[in-house]
Design a protein that fits this description.
377 residues; globular; mainly alpha; three-stranded mixed β-sheet; 15 helices; 2 domains
Amino acid sequence: MFCLAINLLYEEGASAEFGSEEQGKNLRGRRKGTEGRLLLASGILFAVSLLLQLLARLVPGFGEWYAVTVYPVIVGTLGRVSGSVPFSVVEAAAYLLTAAAVWYTAVHLKRIRMVLVRALLFLTGIFFLFTCNCGVNYYRKPFSSYSNLEVRNSSKEELINLCTALTETVNQYCEDGVGAAMELKDANREGVAAMRRLGEQYPQLAGYYPGPKPLAWSYFFSVQQLCGQYSPFTVEANYNREMPDYNIPHTICHELSHLRGFMREDEANFIGYLACIGSDSPSYRYSGYLTGWVYATNALAKTDMEAYLELCGVLDERAWADLRENNEFWARYDGKAAEVSNQLNDTYLKINSQTDGVKSYGRVVDLMLAYARKQAD
């Protein structure tokens, strides 16, 4: 009886050991199966993204077709969902995902292969969202082709006339006591209204606009010297709430223009300018004209310094106060982070076929000159 009991215990122990080994094999098998499925998903996302990128770059008209048929559906669905939330979804997601990534890596450090596989899936997902919600739109027709603007080389006299007109308009707003300060909720609402109003003139800008959102922690933008940013991952227009007031209205309209599929920075600046100067809000109009003044006179300074200094001398001191505040604000964040951010932005623009890189921000003046000629006709 005693021997029988020992034999039974031995057999039970052997069985338990065998079961544990089998469970280990099953667990490893399930993990490999999971890894395989995740790698397959990553491959599919990357392949679809690459195909869309190639179609946009190589097939004439594909980018335009996508921008006017597929992208509006994305804005009307994903953009509507994220727009229903009163805070920046991409900002909240960035904080949560960073914390989750650190926690997951720490907990599963011994399973580094699984960590890397999941990281790969995340990165390909990011690439997929960027391509679908942003990347293809870089290859649509330029806004000038819709607006019937003749963008060409302009004479110095035309540039001086534009700068003079802008100076007179800004001065008039200053004399009327108009400034750019307004409550953020009012600024957000008026930004959407201004874009919708512009959409009545240019149907390509008509459609649903989710409300623009300031970052809760705008230091993240300030240290990179960013006024705002369109998030293709959540289809949101975000802006820097800490920057000087006169920057906010134009930045809001600039970022909202990306939600109509116009990704080129020179065009977004121009659309923002048009939306602001056509707004019912005096603060928005002041922001548009003063921002336009900065773009135009910077171009003039490279052409005729004497004419530039003459116009600077007649600009209202209240406008100069806004410009000085703006310069002082960004000077506080002029450092290595801003330099790296500028280089990354330059590379990003060139990758997406904006060959001028960050210089494309200055080409808005050509569009402003073309618009001034059209208005004069």
